[in-house]
Amino acid sequence: MSDAQLETCFPQIPNGTPGLASLERENRALLHQLALTANLHYSSGVFGQWESVWFHQDNEHSTGMRDEDFWQHNVFVGYRFPRRHAELRLGVLNIADTECR
To answer: Quick check: pTM over 0.70?
Structure first.
């Protein structure tokens, strides 16, 4: 979970300028993330991995920004060298092509 805050201000514009209050604002968002992983390892060093990550962003005090909620699925295959000194890994990220809007 992470909390982000964005403050927009224009110190070069004098206070009291018409329309300045509508430009200066504070946006805050809370991001929740949950990752689920399944691994398959063979003694030969070959492995496979499935990863599903859930994202939920709660936009507080944000005008025009709606809350987001989506899953992203990734798959990897690879080979680990003896004693795990190195590994080769290939993967496809975001298989379902989901995105935040």
So the answer is: no
